[in-house]
Specification:
The chain has about 500 residues and is α+β, with helices and mostly antiparallel strands. It has helices spanning about 10-35, 65-70, 100-120, 145-160, 200-220, 235-240, 250, 270-280, 290-295, 305-310, 345-360, 375-385, 410-425, 430-450, 450-465, 470-485, and strands spanning about 45-55, 75-80, 85-95, 125, 165-170, 175-180, 190-195, 225, 230, 260, 315, 320-325, 330-335, 390-395, 405-410. Strands 1, 2, 3, 4, 7, 12 and 13 form a seven-stranded antiparallel sheet that branches. A two-stranded antiparallel sheet has the order 5-6.
C-alpha cells in the first residue's frame, strides 16, 4: 500500500485520486473479463464465522486481544467489537466428505478457542446477536484497537454528520441513537464463499439473491437487541442503520444505503462493481502504488486494491469478490446472509443447503429469477427477517404455469427446495451420507418449526414466566444457549427453556 493515512486525514485531492484509481481498476477488471484471464473453476468454497465472547454469567467480555493472544492461531482474528472474533476456514474443494471435514475442523478449532478463552472467563458463543448486549457495550470505546476499524468509524461518522438512529419495529419497538458504528459489532454472521467463473457468476449471484429469504427463514438466530424482542433476524435492519452514511434528507431523496439487498438481477459481475463505484462514495480513499492498466499492458495481473477496498465498504448480502491466488485472478460470490450458530452442525447444514440449492438453481433451464421479480425477492427477504421460521413467501407456482403464490417457507423448503439442494450436492459429488445428514437437519427444523431464533424467544418467555426479570431472563437464555451450542446437537432437538 501507499503512504499510511490516519483517521480524519483525507482531503479532496485524496478522494479525487482515489476515484481515478477506482475507475482504472474498473477498467482493468473489464479487460481481465474480456481477455478471459480468470482461473478455471476448482469447485472451491470457503467459510468464515464471526463469534462473540461472553463470560459464565452470559454477559459480553471486551477482551478479544487477550483471548487472541492465548489462542495464538492465524485462523482467528479480530472483528469490529472487542467482544468479537472471527474464525476463517481454509478453502476446500466442494466434493466428497467436505461437509463432515468442515464440521470436524470447526469443532476442533472452536473447542480449542473456547478452552483458551475460558482461562479468562470469556467463552466462545456462536449467535447472530448476543442477547445480553446493551447500549453501554456498543460504544466507540469498545471498538477493537485496530487502525482500520477506527478509521472506518471516523469516516462513516463524518459522512453521516449526525448520530445514527436505530429504529426497529418488531415484536417490540427499539428506538435509540448511537454516536458511532459500534452497534454494527452486534451483528455476527457466517460468510460462505464460492469461487465461480465469470460466465457463471451472474447465475450463481442471482440464485443466491433469490434464496436469501429462504436461508433466513430456516436459519434466523438474532431476535434480541438491547433487551428488546425485535425481528426474528434483526441483523439486516441493525446493520443497515448502524452503517448508514445518509442523513435523513438523503434517505428521503432515495440515495441507496451501503447495506443493500440490491435492486435488479444482473448479467455479469462487472455490473455490481460498477454500481459500487457509481452509487457509493469512498470511505477509505487509500491509494496503492500499482497502475493496473500498465500491469495488464505488461502481461501481469493487477491486484486492484482500490476496487477490493471499496467493495469491502459496500455491504451487500451477496457480495462480488475479486481476488488473486498464486498470481491468478478469480471471482467469488460471498454469501453474507446467515447469522452465526447455533451449533457447528447447524452451520454446516446451512452451508450444505445453500451450496446445493445455488448449484441446482444456477443450472435450471428456466431460471428462478426469470419467473420472479427482483422486488419480490427483496420483499421476501424482509418478510423472512421479520418472521423467521413462520414466514410466508411469494414464490413462482410449480410446473409450467406462471405467476406467484404465497407459501409457508417450511412447506416450500420441504416440498421443493430440499430435493433441489440434494440434486445440487449430487452435482458437486458430495458424499450421499453427508448430504442426507445435513439436509436432514434443515428438514428437522422445518418439521418442528424450530430454529435458533424461535428457541431463544421461547426460552426467554419461559424464563419470564418463571419469575425472572428481563435482563436476568436474557442472561439465563444466553448461558443455556452456550451450553447447548457446545453440545453440538442441532437446535431443533434442544430442550425447551433456559433451565430444562
Amino acid at each position: 500500500m501507499g503512504e499510511k493515512i490516519v483517521a480524519g486525514g483525507f482531503d479532496l485531492s485524496d478522494r479525487q485520486r482515489y476515484r481515478r484509481k477506482l475507475q482504472q481498476c474498473l477498467a482493468g477488471l473489464g479487460r481481465l473479463l474480456t481477455e478471459k484471464r480468470f482461473d478455471r473453476p476448482r469447485n472451491l468454497m470457503g467459510l468464515e464465522i464471526e463469534l462473540n465472547l461472553a463470560g459464565s454469567d452470559g454477559l459480553p467480555r471486551m477482551m478479544n486481544a487477550e483471548v487472541l493472544d492465548r489462542i495464538a492461531s492465524r485462523d482467528f482474528q479480530t472483528e469490529l467489537g472487542m467482544f468479537n472474533l472471527e474464525v476463517n476456514i481454509a478453502p476446500h474443494r466442494l466434493a466428497g466428505r467436505v461437509l463432515d471435514q468442515l464440521a470436524e475442523e470447526l469443532r476442533t478449532g472452536l473447542g480449542y478457542a473456547h478452552r483458551k478463552a475460558a482461562e479468562v472467563d470469556a467463552g466462545i458463543v456462536m449467535i447472530g446477536i448476543l442477547p445480553t448486549l446493551d447500549g453501554k457495550d456498543l460504544v466507540s470505546a469498545n471498538l477493537s484497537d485496530v487502525d482500520r476499524y477506527v478509521l472506518l468509524n471516523d469516516q462513516i461518522v463524518a459522512a453521516r454528520g449526525e448520530d445514527f438512529t436505530l429504529d426497529i419495529e418488531g415484536v417490540e419497538h427499539l428506538n435509540c441513537t448511537s454516536s458511532s458504528i459500534a452497534p454494527e459489532a452486534a451483528c455476527t454472521s457466517v460468510q460462505l464463499h464460492l469461487q465461480v467463473t465469470p460466465g457463471r457468476f451472474a447465475q450463481v449471484w442471482n440464485a443466491a439473491q433469490a434464496v436469501a429469504a429462504v436461508q433466513i427463514a430456516v436459519g434466523a438466530n438474532s431476535p434480541f437487541l438491547f433487551g428488546k424482542e425485535l425481528w426474528r433476524e434483526s441483523r439486516p435492519p441493525l446493520f443497515q442503520q448502524a452503517t448508514d452514511t445518509r442523513p435523513p434528507e438523503l434517505q428521503a431523496q432515495g440515495v441507496r444505503p451501503r447495506t443493500w439487498f440490491g435492486e435488479r438481477w444482473v448479467s455479469s459481475a462487472y455490473e455490481l462493481f460498477e454500481e459500487n463505484l457509481r452509487y457509493f462514495p469512498a470511505l477509505l480513499p487509500i491509494c496503492d502504488d500499482e497502475e493496473p492498466l500498465r500491469v495488464l499492458d505488461d502481461g501481469g495481473v493487477p491486484r486492484l486494491q482500490e476496487l477490493v477496498l471499496h467493495n469491502g465498504t459496500v455491504y451487500r448480502w451477496n457480495r462480488p469478490v475479486y481476488g488473486l491466488a498464486d498470481g491468478v485472478p478469480h471471482l467469488r460470490v460471498e454469501n453474507r446472509v446467515l447469522p452465526a450458530g447455533p451449533t457447528v452442525t447447524d452451520v454446516v447444514a446451512n452451508a450444505a443447503f445453500y451450496y446445493g440449492l445455488v448449484r441446482a438453481l444456477a443450472e435450471e433451464s428456466r431460471p428462478l429469477w426469470t419467473r420472479m421479480p427482483f422486488e419480490t425477492a427483496a420483499a421476501n427477504f424482509e418478510t423472512a427477517c421479520r418472521h423467521g421460521i413462520e414466514a410466508e413467501l411469494e414464490w413462482p407456482r410449480p410446473g409450467r404455469g406462471s405467476g406467484l403464490t404465497r407459501v409457508p417457507a417450511v412447506k416450500l423448503v420441504r416440498d421443493e427446495l430440499l430435493p433441489l439442494a440434494a440434486a445440487g450436492l449430487d452435482a458437486w459429488n458430495v458424499e450421499p451420507a453427508d448430504r442426507d445428514f445435513y439436509l436432514g437437519v434443515i428438514e428437522g427444523r422445518c418439521r418442528r418449526r424450530v430454529n435458533g431464533a424461535s428457541w431463544q424467544v421461547d426460552a426467554f418467555h419461559r424464563a419470564l414466566d418463571a419469575g425472572l426479570d428481563r435482563q436476568d431472563a436474557l442472561a439465563a437464555v444466553t448461558r443455556r444457549y452456550s451450553v447447548l451450542m457446545h453440545s453440538d446437537e442441532p437446535v431443533h432437538t434442544w430442550p425447551a427453556g433456559p433451565g430444562d
